[in-house]
Amino acid sequence: MTRHESTDHRLLAYSLAAGAAALGVSDASAGIVYSGPQDIEVFQFGGQQLNLDGDAYDDILLKNYVFGGGNYQGLYVNFYPGKVNGFISGFAYASALSAGDPINAGTVSVFQASMAYGTNNPNAEFNNADGAFIGIGFPIAGVNHFGWIRVTIDNAAGRFIINDWAYEDQPGVGIAAGAGIPEPSALGLLAAGALGLAGYRGRRA
Questions:
Q1: Which of 64, 66, 131, 191 counts the highest number of beta carbons within 10 A?
Q2: Which domain of life is it from (predicted)?
Q3: pTM for the whole structure
Q4: What distance in Å separates the CA atoms of residue 143 and residue 62, rounded to the nearest whole number?
Q5: Radius of gyration (Cα) for the chain, nearest Å?
Q6: How is the chain split into domains, by residue range?
Q7: Is residue 164 helix, strand or coil?
């Protein structure tokens, strides 16, 4: 390998490392694993199974159904002891979290919940949600891990988008809603690094 080739390999490695950091990709020493932007549409009359950690098991079913009373969005956590941040007020409801809200063993409380059903579920918090967070506990090898799912819902229009998600890869360790989303500055550094590498290689050509 020549000196120039070695330099190219080092620059490529730095660029890839920056990319992994910006996208929240996990390694053995990392804590929060971030999905990257997803924007998955959950179509009406159906649902979307979500596998947060990429193993052999789907962790949560997100629903976008249509009943006699109108459009309904809800969720169901597939495996015990998984639950989501929620509350009981006549019905079980999922809580719409803001960035920074805690998600841990003390906050997850319901495994099946309404998110939005117009006036039929009057305490629902996702009727008009723009980037609201669902707090979730889900098992990996039988032990709860905590994470969040960010969603955008327009109940009246029947629109349900899964924006992205993240989870803490250490069992039993809580997470804050929105934790793990890359800062815009990190994405800017990644772009600048990629452009710099391209420019360097162009000068060598």
A1: 64
A2: Bacteria
A3: 0.78
A4: 22
A5: 20
A6: 31-181
A7: strand
